[in-house]
Amino acid sequence: MAGENAAIWQVQASAANGTEATATATNTVLFNSSTKVPSDGGFIDDILVDFRRAVPENEAVDADNNELQDMGIDGLDITVTGYIGNANNDTSTNSVTKLVKWMQEKNTATLFTKGRYGLRLDNAPNWNVVPTATYGYYIRQIRFHYIGENVDLVKITIALSLGGDIPNAI
Q1: Is the CB of residue 154 less than 8 Å from the CB of residue 147?
Q2: Measuring CA to CA, which residue among 160, 162, 163, 165 is closest to residue 79?
Q3: Residue 80 lies in a domain
Protein backbone atom coordinates (compact mmCIF):
# COMPACT_ATOMS: atom_id res chain seq x y z
CA MET A 1 0.00 0.00 0.00
CA ALA A 2 1.15 3.52 -0.68
CA GLY A 3 2.17 5.79 2.18
CA GLU A 4 3.12 3.28 4.88
CA ASN A 5 6.66 3.50 6.20
CA ALA A 6 6.49 0.96 9.01
CA ALA A 7 5.19 -2.59 9.37
CA ILE A 8 5.08 -5.55 11.71
CA TRP A 9 4.26 -8.89 10.16
CA GLN A 10 3.73 -12.46 11.30
CA VAL A 11 5.40 -15.23 9.30
CA GLN A 12 3.18 -18.25 8.73
CA ALA A 13 4.37 -21.83 9.35
CA SER A 14 3.96 -22.61 5.64
CA ALA A 15 6.09 -19.65 4.46
CA ALA A 16 9.23 -20.40 2.48
CA ASN A 17 10.85 -17.19 3.74
CA GLY A 18 10.14 -14.47 6.28
CA THR A 19 9.87 -11.44 4.01
CA GLU A 20 7.13 -8.87 4.38
CA ALA A 21 6.13 -9.52 0.76
CA THR A 22 5.13 -13.12 1.59
CA ALA A 23 2.90 -12.07 4.49
CA THR A 24 -0.73 -11.54 3.52
CA ALA A 25 -2.79 -8.50 4.55
CA THR A 26 -4.23 -10.62 7.38
CA ASN A 27 -0.72 -11.13 8.75
CA THR A 28 0.62 -7.56 8.42
CA VAL A 29 -0.01 -4.39 10.41
CA LEU A 30 0.97 -1.22 8.55
CA PHE A 31 1.71 2.13 10.18
CA ASN A 32 2.01 5.79 9.16
CA SER A 33 -0.50 5.48 6.37
CA SER A 34 -1.70 8.44 4.37
CA THR A 35 -5.21 7.92 5.76
CA LYS A 36 -6.00 10.09 8.76
CA VAL A 37 -6.65 8.57 12.16
CA PRO A 38 -9.25 7.97 13.60
CA SER A 39 -11.08 7.06 10.39
CA ASP A 40 -8.59 4.31 9.53
CA GLY A 41 -4.89 3.56 9.44
CA GLY A 42 -2.16 3.33 12.02
CA PHE A 43 0.51 5.77 13.13
CA ILE A 44 3.68 5.31 15.17
CA ASP A 45 4.53 8.21 17.43
CA ASP A 46 7.44 6.74 19.41
CA ILE A 47 10.09 4.03 19.06
CA LEU A 48 12.17 3.03 22.09
CA VAL A 49 15.20 0.77 21.53
CA ASP A 50 16.81 -0.98 24.50
CA PHE A 51 20.03 -2.62 23.26
CA ARG A 52 21.68 -4.26 26.26
CA ARG A 53 25.05 -5.75 27.17
CA ALA A 54 25.50 -8.24 29.99
CA VAL A 55 27.85 -6.59 32.49
CA PRO A 56 27.68 -8.41 35.83
CA GLU A 57 29.39 -7.11 38.94
CA ASN A 58 31.89 -9.35 40.71
CA GLU A 59 32.06 -7.88 44.17
CA ALA A 60 35.26 -8.24 46.14
CA VAL A 61 34.78 -9.39 49.69
CA ASP A 62 36.25 -6.96 52.21
CA ALA A 63 37.88 -4.81 49.53
CA ASP A 64 37.16 -1.42 48.06
CA ASN A 65 36.89 -2.54 44.48
CA ASN A 66 34.17 -3.80 42.24
CA GLU A 67 35.14 -5.78 39.17
CA LEU A 68 32.89 -5.59 36.13
CA GLN A 69 32.85 -8.29 33.48
CA ASP A 70 31.72 -7.81 29.86
CA MET A 71 29.79 -10.88 28.73
CA GLY A 72 28.56 -9.58 25.39
CA ILE A 73 25.12 -8.77 24.09
CA ASP A 74 22.33 -9.42 26.57
CA GLY A 75 19.36 -8.58 24.37
CA LEU A 76 17.51 -6.17 22.13
CA ASP A 77 14.04 -4.92 23.01
CA ILE A 78 11.98 -2.46 21.00
CA THR A 79 8.83 -0.73 22.18
CA VAL A 80 6.65 0.84 19.51
CA THR A 81 3.82 3.15 20.51
CA GLY A 82 1.23 4.70 18.27
CA TYR A 83 -2.42 4.84 17.33
CA ILE A 84 -4.80 2.68 15.36
CA GLY A 85 -8.01 4.09 13.93
CA ASN A 86 -11.22 2.21 13.18
CA ALA A 87 -10.61 0.22 16.37
CA ASN A 88 -14.29 -0.66 16.76
CA ASN A 89 -14.24 -2.72 13.55
CA ASP A 90 -14.06 -6.45 14.32
CA THR A 91 -13.09 -7.75 10.88
CA SER A 92 -10.08 -10.03 10.35
CA THR A 93 -8.22 -7.28 8.48
CA ASN A 94 -8.56 -4.76 11.33
CA SER A 95 -5.18 -4.06 12.99
CA VAL A 96 -6.50 -4.50 16.54
CA THR A 97 -8.05 -7.85 15.61
CA LYS A 98 -4.74 -8.99 14.06
CA LEU A 99 -2.72 -8.00 17.14
CA VAL A 100 -5.14 -9.77 19.49
CA LYS A 101 -4.92 -12.92 17.34
CA TRP A 102 -1.10 -12.75 17.26
CA MET A 103 -0.90 -12.57 21.06
CA GLN A 104 -2.87 -15.81 21.28
CA GLU A 105 -0.58 -17.64 18.85
CA LYS A 106 2.97 -18.86 19.28
CA ASN A 107 5.98 -16.58 18.80
CA THR A 108 7.64 -19.25 16.65
CA ALA A 109 6.71 -21.27 13.58
CA THR A 110 8.03 -24.38 11.81
CA LEU A 111 10.97 -22.77 9.99
CA PHE A 112 11.17 -19.75 12.28
CA THR A 113 12.10 -21.17 15.68
CA LYS A 114 13.93 -18.02 16.90
CA GLY A 115 11.01 -15.63 16.33
CA ARG A 116 8.30 -15.30 13.70
CA TYR A 117 7.74 -11.54 13.60
CA GLY A 118 9.37 -9.12 11.21
CA LEU A 119 9.80 -5.39 11.67
CA ARG A 120 10.29 -2.61 9.14
CA LEU A 121 10.92 0.95 10.31
CA ASP A 122 11.87 3.12 7.35
CA ASN A 123 12.86 5.95 9.71
CA ALA A 124 14.99 3.66 11.92
CA PRO A 125 16.28 0.93 9.56
CA ASN A 126 19.02 -0.28 11.94
CA TRP A 127 16.37 -2.32 13.75
CA ASN A 128 14.65 -3.84 10.70
CA VAL A 129 14.58 -7.64 10.78
CA VAL A 130 13.28 -10.15 8.27
CA PRO A 131 12.82 -13.41 10.23
CA THR A 132 15.01 -16.39 9.30
CA ALA A 133 15.72 -19.78 10.85
CA THR A 134 18.34 -18.13 13.11
CA TYR A 135 16.62 -14.93 14.31
CA GLY A 136 13.34 -13.04 14.49
CA TYR A 137 11.27 -10.87 16.79
CA TYR A 138 9.01 -12.12 19.57
CA ILE A 139 6.03 -10.07 20.72
CA ARG A 140 6.28 -9.82 24.50
CA GLN A 141 3.34 -7.56 25.23
CA ILE A 142 0.69 -5.46 23.55
CA ARG A 143 -1.17 -2.78 25.46
CA PHE A 144 -4.42 -1.27 24.14
CA HIS A 145 -5.49 2.10 25.58
CA TYR A 146 -8.90 3.14 24.31
CA ILE A 147 -9.30 6.90 24.14
CA GLY A 148 -12.67 8.33 25.08
CA GLU A 149 -16.13 6.90 24.75
CA ASN A 150 -17.57 6.37 21.28
CA VAL A 151 -14.21 7.15 19.66
CA ASP A 152 -12.81 4.44 17.42
CA LEU A 153 -9.22 5.26 18.32
CA VAL A 154 -6.84 3.13 20.39
CA LYS A 155 -3.33 3.96 21.58
CA ILE A 156 -1.13 0.88 21.30
CA THR A 157 2.14 -0.14 22.86
CA ILE A 158 3.89 -3.16 21.34
CA ALA A 159 6.94 -4.64 23.09
CA LEU A 160 9.16 -6.77 20.83
CA SER A 161 12.32 -8.74 21.69
CA LEU A 162 14.82 -10.04 19.18
CA GLY A 163 15.51 -13.75 19.52
CA GLY A 164 18.41 -15.77 18.17
CA ASP A 165 21.58 -14.49 16.49
CA ILE A 166 21.31 -10.78 17.36
CA PRO A 167 24.63 -9.59 15.82
CA ASN A 168 23.70 -11.04 12.40
CA ALA A 169 20.09 -9.91 12.61
CA ILE A 170 20.84 -6.19 12.78
Answers
A1: yes
A2: 160
A3: yes
DSSP annotation of 109 reads: B
Peptide bond into 167 cis (omega under 30): no
**What is the pLDDT tens value at each position of the chain, 170 positions in all?**
446 889 999 999 888 889 888 888 889 999 887 666 656 678 898 999 999 988 888 777 777 777 778 888 889 999 999 998 887 778 877 889 999 999 999 999 989 999 999 999 999 999 999 999 999 999 999 999 988 776 788 999 999 999 999 999 99
Does residue 1 lie within any of the structural domains? no
For the chain, the maximum distance between any two Cα atoms, rounded to a whole number of angstroms, is 65
CATH number at residue 19: 2.40.30.200
Q: What burial class does residue 148 get, using C-beta atoms within 10 Å of its C-beta: 0-12 exposed, 13-18 middle, 19+ buried? A: exposed
DSSP sequence for 54-83: ---EEEPTTSS-EEE----EEEEEEEEEEE
Helix H or strand E segment including 104: helix 95-104
pTM: 0.87
